[in-house]
Amino acid sequence: xxxxxxxxxxxxxxxxxxxxxxxxxxxxxxxxxxxxxxxxxxxxxxxxxxxxxxxxxxxxxxxxxxxxxxxxxxxxxxxxxxxxxxxxxxxxxxxxxxxxxxxxxxxxxxxxxxxxxxxxxxxxxxxxxxxxxxxxxxxxxxxxxxxxxxxxxxxxxxxxxxxxxxxxxxxxxxxxxxxxxxxxxxxxxxxxxxxxxxxxxxxxxxxxxxxxxxxxxxxxxxxxxxxxxxxxxxxxxxxxxxxxxxxxxxxxxxxxxxxxxxxxxxxxxxxxxxxxxxxxxxxxxxx
Amino acid sequence: xxxxxxxxxxxxxxxxxxxxxxxxxxxxxxxxxxxxxxxxxxxxxxxxxxxxxxxxxxxxxxxxxxxxxxxxxxxxxxxxxxxxxxxxxxxxxxxxxxxxxxxxxxxxxxxxxxxxxxxxxxxxxxxxxxxxxxxxxxxxxxxxxxxxxxxxxxxxxxxxxxxxxxxxxxxxxxxxxxxxxxxxxxxxxxxxxxxxxxxxxxxxxxxxxxxxxxxxxxxxxxxxxxxxxxxxxxxxxxxxxxxxxxxxxxxxxxxxxxxxxxxxxxxxxxxxxxxxxxxxxxxxxxx
Lengths: 287, 287
Fold this sequence. Notes:
Mean pLDDT of chain A: 93
CATH superfamily of chain A: Farnesyl Diphosphate Synthase
CATH architecture of chain A: Orthogonal Bundle
Oligomer: homodimer
CATH class of chain A: Mainly Alpha
Distance between the termini of chain A: 19 Å
């Protein structure tokens, strides 16, 4: 699996660089490039594996993989802003507003969102029907029904008097990180005009497992390992899966979710080996 | 013309409210709604008139008109942020980050951009081919080649040692306000799969005339009339069309541009009367 992840990383890095380089030179383009640098490329990997599983060409899936990574990069840039999470470190580097400035970071995030939608209109992806259905699903996943909705719940939670319940924190995660992960996993099925339900099921379990593992790492990890500040949630008195379930409970829930994500892939048999490995990788590394 | 503008305003207000209401209730949705309130709806009017001129149904054009207004609203919300132009008044009301808070304003802007792209995937607009070509043109108009690029040039100009030249300020305007105005004017031609060149020509002249009239109003207008702070450009020592051409020169250039926008509509004959009136309205009101 690691070899395949590395191959996808290299492919996406080259294609994303190319997409950004097609814009006029200057600070804005530099900031977009900076923001898209590095990262695990989990979402791109999900797109490429989902495409492979549904018999879709890599050339059709690659613009979609770039779109989800550009969108993810924009969301991190805006999330790190002083008015939001106020983070100065991301992927082991200064955040975009620290390296450039706040105005440039806001605009680079905005432009990355536009670029992501533009990438989904790429003719290489397939028929206009397929592209439009992808774009509609993407808009739902990232806007005020999906990712941005989850980010808003997260911001609201910080100023709330009462910590979130498990149901509330789950709803928050389903938006903030779950929606784009789900879109990424479904993308191959959308491209192949196949049933998206099994991949959605896989992704919902994976996304939640991933978030819980992240919360665990915020308690047990260090900055050299994670590339970002740790212990922030605890310091802010925010409810997390760890504060609600305890460390052992959170680990147990992660294992259950990974088993459920595994079960969702049954119909794909052995061909889904990489996606099963990915889910297991989440607990091995973090939990 | 005024009657037709008022009709479009009402139509777009209802449709935009409906699109926003389809999202989960809460502060984010309230802020999106607040940000979309009011305004001249110039861009929506261009979309609807361009559609009428090309024999396109209102029902197909309306989601496009809503998309350009949602996008325009997002751009104003982000433009007004403290890290950008730091404005507290817009359309006679407190700006979104004043009325809500900065984080909510950033997220509402982000969500309005997603919503705009989602609206362009609406089946009412037409065939998937038409929708995808609209989306591709829209992404170009609003991203790091279009509007956001122009905003970045504007921000950069503020910290530059030397004021912008006329060529530079024109390039800035072509991005910051011109690109979305051009998209709006071309939309009807794209929907009808007709030649977009005449409408693009009309819009480039109109957009520039509109910006120069805005610069004139920043010098000659008052806040009650404009609904926003005036004299800011001058106070900031920013080059504007007025500072470069003088008040009389700026007025003369506006008249020339309006004549050129008129000439671009020749092939449409009398049916383009509303669009001609719109361009003349710009000088009558402002210059």
